[in-house]
Each structure stands twice: as structure tokens, then as C-alpha cells.
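Project outcomes to date are best conveyed with an example. Our students and postdoctoral researchers have been running inverse folding experiments weekly, and each run begins with a structure described purely in C-alpha cells. The record below, which covers 272 residues, was selected by the lab manager from last quarter's runs and is presented without edits.
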């Protein structure tokens, strides 16, 4: 059988060569443009599945880091509330101390006591305003997801941050009708100050301890984000080198095909 003067076999092989490397080049472009290691699931099904799991985990841990910041916010609000209550008690103590002056009449003492009772009335107002996301931060249990999944939580128990009433702060203990009675009320107010000081110290201790947990979760979030980038993001130097290599191969195939077509055309001209 006579050989084909047009070299159809060579042309077909060149065309297949070009298509193969053109597809690889297109995949390189897709990965570089999308900053992804995978142009499609067919690239590496197991690798893509792993990368997506790590990415989801990284997002979960980032949310957990934000949760830890919210946990600290709860303790900060409680600490601020206790601080304001202490300011009230300090002012009440000042007024009660003045009322112990023998120069005060009983009527003067009653007036001072009325003012002290008004101050004590604001304590419950402050406790009611100490809220986070619509919930009172005092005598309310908070659970914060801290590990990137629902099974790892940090809990602030309702017994940790409490109202001043739980600490025994009673406005009746600070009521008096005579300068002599004011002395007894003064001792009671000192007891209230001690009780709220302990509550404030507890809130501060929790805020500080939660800071260590927050630091770790933030570090964990960074580690997972790096792992997610490694699993999902394209290696730009390697992918760029592959793109250049595949582009050159495609151009070489196109050159071969053009030369073959030109040779076939020249033979046909000679046979005319």
C-alpha cells in the first residue's frame, strides 16, 4: 500500500499531543487563577476531600477563637458591674460615716439613711443592666464552644458570677434612725464591700484565666489556617513552572503540526 502523502498519522499524533498539553495548561490557569491546588475533583479526589475537611475545621476553630473573646467579654461586664456596685457602697459608707457624728440629730440620721437606701436601690439596677446578648451575666450559665466542634466547651457556671444579693448585700443592713445606729450600719456596709470585692476578684480571675484559653485557641486557629492553605492553595512557583512547561510543549506541538501541514501542501503542489 502506498504511503499517505499528507502524513495523516503524524498530524493526528501532533493534534493529540497539542490537545493533551493544552488541557494541562488550562488546568494550570484554573489553579493559578483560583489559588487552588485542584482544578477539579478529578485532580486528586482524596486530596480535595482532605483539604475541604481541614478548611471546615479551620473555620470552626476561628469561630471558637471568637467565642473565647465573647467569654472574656462576659467576665469583663460582670467585673465592671461589681466595680460600679463598689462605687455605690463606698459612697454609702461615706454618708453613713458622716451620720455617726454626734452633732447629727435623729432626724438628720434618718435623712442620711434615706439617701443611703436610695443608693442601695441602684445596685439591682446595675445588676439588671449587666447583660450580654440579651442574657444577664450574673447567675446565668454560659457555655462557649472552644475546640472547633460541639464537644469541646468552656463553661462559666451560674455560681461563678452572682448577684450581690447572693453575697449577702442587704439594704436593710444599712438602714439607721440615729447616729448611734449609723455606727452599726457602717460595720454592715463594710461587710457588703468585702463581699462584692470578692465577687469582683472572682470575675477578674476568670477573665485572666480565660485569656490563656483564648491565646491557645487563637494559636490553634492560625495553625489550622496554615494547614488549610497548604492543603487547598496552589503552590504558585511549582504551578507557574508547570504552566510554562505545558505552554512550551503546546507551542512545540503546534509548530510541528504547522510544519507537517506545510510539507503536505508542498508535495501536493509538486504533483499538480
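After processing, the design step wrote out the following sequence:
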Amino acid at each position: 500500500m502506498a504511503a499517505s502523502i499528507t502524513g495523516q498519522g503524524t498530524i493526528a499524533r501532533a493534534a493529540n499531543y497539542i490537545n493533551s498539553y493544552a488541557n494541562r495548561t488550562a488546568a494550570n490557569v484554573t489553579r493559578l487563577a483560583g489559588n487552588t491546588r485542584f482544578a477539579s475533583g478529578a485532580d486528586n479526589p482524596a486530596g480535595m476531600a482532605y483539604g475541604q475537611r481541614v478548611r471546615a475545621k479551620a473555620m470552626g476553630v476561628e469561630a471558637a477563637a471568637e467565642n473565647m473573646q465573647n467569654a472574656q467579654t462576659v467576665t469583663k461586664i460582670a467585673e465592671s458591674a461589681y466595680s460600679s456596685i463598689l462605687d455605690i457602697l463606698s459612697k454609702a459608707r461615706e454618708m453613713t460615716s458622716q451620720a455617726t457624728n454626734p452633732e447629727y440629730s435623729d432626724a438628720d440620721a434618718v435623712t442620711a439613711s434615706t439617701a443611703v437606701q436610695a443608693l442601695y436601690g441602684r445596685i439591682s439596677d446595675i445588676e439588671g443592666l449587666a447583660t450580654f446578648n440579651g442574657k444577664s451575666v450574673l447567675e446565668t450559665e454560659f457555655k462557649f464552644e472552644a475546640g472547633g466542634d460541639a464537644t469541646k466547651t468552656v463553661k462559666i457556671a451560674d455560681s461563678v458570677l452572682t448577684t450581690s444579693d447572693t453575697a449577702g448585700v442587704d439594704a436593710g443592713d444599712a438602714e439607721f434612725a440615729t447616729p448611734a445606729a449609723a455606727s452599726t450600719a457602717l460595720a454592715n456596709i463594710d461587710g457588703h464591700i468585702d463581699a462584692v470585692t470578692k465577687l469582683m476578684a472572682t470575675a477578674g480571675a476568670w477573665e485572666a484565666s480565660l485569656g490563656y484559653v483564648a491565646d491557645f485557641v487563637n494559636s490553634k486557629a492560625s495553625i489550622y489556617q496554615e494547614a488549610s492553605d497548604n492543603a487547598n492553595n496552589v503552590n504558585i512557583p511549582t504551578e507557574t513552572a508547570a504552566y510554562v512547561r505545558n505552554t512550551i510543549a503546546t507551542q512545540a506541538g503546534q509548530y510541528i503540526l504547522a510544519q507537517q501541514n506545510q510539507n503536505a501542501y508542498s508535495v501536493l503542489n509538486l504533483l499538480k
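The radius of gyration is 39 Å. DSSP finds five helices and four strands in the chain. The training component of this project remains on track.
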